[in-house]
């Protein structure tokens, strides 16, 4: 009886281990200090969301379908990700109810996807102001409307100067309602 109980318990444990191993979703990690040549593990994360998306696509279409049988989760670690071009998701990136594909922040971390362009090279310009020359803007190849420093929107240099005492009326140039006559 003892041998039968041991064999039954071993079979139950093996079956349970099989259930647990197939129940876990495939996981990938993305971190600001990652490298897209990495395997996308927690210890060796990818650097970009695009690379993680491509790996999930690859598993779903080219490799063993059982690799994503229970879905895939892409965890973004905390930090700011500078997005230089659009990240495109297509129907092939979707999951199903039984096999979800999830992109999520890693536990208690705050990833920030920033579609802006990081501007560097500011130099003191007197009176506590900073300035930077942007050749692309000067050449008309690039323009922007908003400027943020340390997460706060800044007022760009302009003429006439911005007037905080009356921000809706002052600081703008006006033309006569009938400029020709």
Task: Give a structural overview.
The protein is of the alpha/beta class and 181 residues long. It folds into two domains: 26-114, so0334 like fold (2-Layer Sandwich), CATH 3.30.1910; 118-181, no CATH class. The chain has helices at residues 2-23, 49-61, 135-138; strands at 26-30, 72-76, 79-82, 101-105, 111-114, 123-124, 130-131, 147-149, 152-154. It has a three-stranded parallel sheet, with helices on one face. A two-stranded parallel sheet has the order 3-5. Strands 6-7 form a two-stranded antiparallel ribbon. The termini are far apart. The model is unreliable at 1-22 (pLDDT under 50).
Largest sheet: 3 strands, parallel
Rounded to the nearest angstrom, the distance between the terminal CA atoms is: 111 Å
Helix content bin: 10-25%
Any low-confidence stretches, pLDDT <50, length ≥5?
Answer: 1-22
SSE order: HEHEEEEEEHEE
Supply the CATH architecture of the largest domain: 2-Layer Sandwich
The CATH topology of the largest domain is given as: so0334 like fold
CATH top level of the largest domain is Alpha Beta
Strand composition percent: 15-25%
Mean pLDDT: 81
Number of domains: 2
Lateral strand order in the biggest sheet: 1-2-4
Structural class, from helix and strand content? Answer: alpha/beta
Number of strands: 9
How many helices? 3
Write down the Rg.
Answer: 27 Å
Shape: elongated
Short description:
With 181 residues, the chain is an alpha/beta fold.
Notable characteristics:
3-stranded parallel β-sheet; 2 domains; 22% helix; 3 helices; alpha/beta; elongated; disordered N terminus; 181 residues; single chain; 9 strands; so0334 like fold; two-stranded parallel ribbon
């Amino acid at each position: 009886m003892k041998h039968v109980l041991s064999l039954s318990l071993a079979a139950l444990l093996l079956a349970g281990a099989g259930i647990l191993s197939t129940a876990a979703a495939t996981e990938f990690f993305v971190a600001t200090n990652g490298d897209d040549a990495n395997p996308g593990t927690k210890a060796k994360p990818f650097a970009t969301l695009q690379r993680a998306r491509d790996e999930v696509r690859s598993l779903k279409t080219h490799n063993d379908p059982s690799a994503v049988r229970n879905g895939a989760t892409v965890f973004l670690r905390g930090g700011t990700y500078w997005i230089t071009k659009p990240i495109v998701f297509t129907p092939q990136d979707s999951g199903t109810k039984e096999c979800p594909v999830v992109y999520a922040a890693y536990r208690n971390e705050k990833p920030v996807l920033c579609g802006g362009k990081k501007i560097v090279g500011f130099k003191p310009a007197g009176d506590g102001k900073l300035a930077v020359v942007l050749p692309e803007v000067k050449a008309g190849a690039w323009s922007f409307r908003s400027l943020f420093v340390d997460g706060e929107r800044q007022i760009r240099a302009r003429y006439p100067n911005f007037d905080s005492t009356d921000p809706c009326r002052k600081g703008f140039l006006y033309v006569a309602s009938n400029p020709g006559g």
